[in-house]
């Protein structure tokens, strides 16, 4: 009888041990999962913080770069501050158009041009340019050239006749109105002219 009673007790103890072992295994797995999840969460949080700090660092650097003033290149010259190019002409000596007495003028002319290339181009037309200026001066009287206004007007007229050999036609100083029904002639602008100004290096009237 004792052997028979011991057999059921052993049978009951075996399932209890198995259940207990299973519970221990499940608990161990749960602990591992929780520990791994916590570690993963910690690592992910740390990585996120590092990325955020890096992003802030980049934004701060970008902001610093934007606020930093740009350095202008010293070698680059502004067109407004470019050195002018001058083409001096040999002095002109002409008899003036005065009728009462013989008078002549000796005038030194210098042409201010757009650039060095324009200066070389003008030299190719120099004989024709000098001819036009001489014809213009020979039509002037001493009274026409007197005073600052006369000289300023002469400079404008010299500019106009000097560019004609190059096929550039600037508007006359005092352009008459075109008759009704007739189209006004279209002239070139000063922007089309390689000569921008006329300077006098000497101005003698005798």
Which helices and strands occur, and which strands form pairs?
Elements: H1 2-67, E1 85-88, E2 92-95, E3 104-113, H2 116-124, H3 126-138, H4 147-162, E4 195-205
Antiparallel strand pairs: 1-3, 2-3, 3-4
Helix pairs in contact: 3-4
Properties at a glance:
disordered N terminus, Tetrahydropterin Synthase, Chain A, alpha+beta, rod-shaped, 206 residues, single chain
Describe this structure in words.
The chain has 2 domains: 7-56; 82-172 and 188-205, Tetrahydropterin Synthase, Chain A, CATH 3.30.479. The protein contains 4 helices and 4 strands. It has helices at 2-67, 116-124, 126-138, 147-162; strands at residues 85-88, 92-95, 104-113, 195-205. Strands 1, 2, 3 and 4 form a 4-stranded antiparallel beta sheet that branches. Residues 1-7, 58-65 and 73-77 have low confidence and may be disordered.
Derived from helix and strand composition plus strand pairing, the structural class reads alpha+beta
> In whole angstroms, how far apart are the ends?
164 Å
Q: State the CATH topology of the largest domain.
A: Tetrahydropterin Synthase, Chain A
Uncertain regions: pLDDT < 50 for 5+ in a row? 1-7, 58-65, 73-77
Which percent range describes the beta-strand content?
A: 5-15%
Total number of helical segments?
4
Total number of domains: 2
Q: Please write the string of helix (H) and strand (E) elements.
A: HEEEHHHE
Mean pLDDT: 75
Helical residue percent? 40-55%
Question: What is the top-level CATH class of the largest domain?
Answer: Alpha Beta
Q: What is the architecture of the largest domain at the second tier of CATH?
A: 2-Layer Sandwich
Secondary structure tally: strands:
4
| Rg | 50 Å
Shape: rod-shaped
Largest sheet: 4 strands, antiparallel
């Amino acid at each position: 009888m004792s052997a028979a009673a011991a057999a059921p007790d052993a049978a009951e103890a075996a399932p209890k041990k198995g259940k207990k072992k299973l519970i221990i295994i499940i608990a161990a797995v749960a602990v591992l999962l929780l520990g791994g999840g916590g570690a993963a969460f910690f690592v992910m949080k740390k990585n996120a913080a590092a990325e955020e700090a890096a992003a802030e660092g980049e934004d701060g650097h970008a902001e610093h770069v934007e606020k930093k003033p740009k350095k202008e290149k010293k070698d680059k010259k502004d067109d407004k501050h470019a050195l002018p190019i001058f083409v001096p002409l040999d002095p002109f000596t002409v008899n003036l158009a005065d009728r009462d007495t013989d008078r002549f003028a000796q005038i030194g002319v210098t042409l201010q041009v757009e650039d060095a290339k324009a200066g070389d181009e003008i030299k190719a037309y120099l004989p024709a340019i000098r001819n036009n200026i001489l014809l213009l001066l020979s039509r002037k009287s001493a009274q026409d050239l007197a005073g600052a206004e006369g000289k300023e007007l002469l400079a404008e007229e010299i500019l106009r006749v000097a560019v004609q050999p190059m096929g550039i036609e600037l508007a006359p100083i005092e352009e008459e109105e075109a008759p009704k029904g007739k189209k006004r002639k279209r002239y070139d602008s000063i922007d089309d002219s390689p000569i921008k100004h006329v300077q006098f290096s000497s101005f003698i009237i005798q």
